[in-house]
């Protein structure tokens, strides 16, 4: 029996199947935001876009003492770029993170 991650669209079409694709890490970097206003940063990832790549943040420690103050960072794939934010789109302007997390961009295909 083989193991694989498979993702289907809401219409039942197989969108992604790791049994026929291999991920390759193309960017792994620590991203830090200090206290202050909400902000956005861009990281260049040539050849990556929403059709062939994913991005995500990994917390780098397990300090839960500041959970209400240290929210998850947000990332979004673009064309040849990944955007990072210390706030969530649609959140109140006072809700931002001062966290340091590892940004991972993985490409397949």
Write a structural description:
With 109 residues, the protein is mostly beta strands. Helices cover 0% and strands 41% of the residues. It is built from no helices and 8 strands. The strands form 3 sheets. It has a 3-stranded antiparallel sheet, with no helix packed on it. The radius of gyration is 16 Å and the shape is elongated.
Question: Low-confidence stretches at least 5 residues in length (pLDDT < 50)?
Answer: none
Question: Which term fits the overall shape?
Answer: elongated
Secondary structure tally: strands: 8
Output the helix-strand order: EEEEEEEE
Largest sheet: 3 strands, antiparallel
Give me the Rg, rounded.
16 Å
Strand adjacency order, main sheet: 3-8-5
Summarize the model shown.
The protein is mainly β and 109 residues long.
In terms of topology, how is this protein built?
Elements: E1 6-8, E2 14-17, E3 24-32, E4 40-44, E5 53-59, E6 74-77, E7 81-85, E8 100-107
Antiparallel strand pairs: 1-2, 3-8, 4-7, 5-8, 6-7
Short key terms for the protein model shown above:
elongated, 0% helix, 109 residues, single chain
């Amino acid at each position: 029996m083989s193991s694989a991650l498979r993702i289907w669209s809401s219409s039942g079409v197989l969108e992604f199947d790791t049994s026929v694709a291999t991920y390759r890490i193309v960017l792994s970097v620590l991203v830090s935001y200090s206290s202050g206003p909400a902000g956005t940063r861009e990281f260049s990832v040539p050849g990556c876009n929403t059709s062939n790549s994913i991005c995500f943040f990994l917390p780098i420690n397990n300090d839960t003492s500041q959970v209400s103050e240290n929210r998850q960072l947000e990332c979004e794939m673009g064309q040849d770029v990944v955007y990072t934010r210390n706030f969530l789109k649609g959140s109140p302007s006072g809700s931002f993170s001062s966290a340091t997390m590892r940004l991972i961009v993985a490409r397949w295909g």
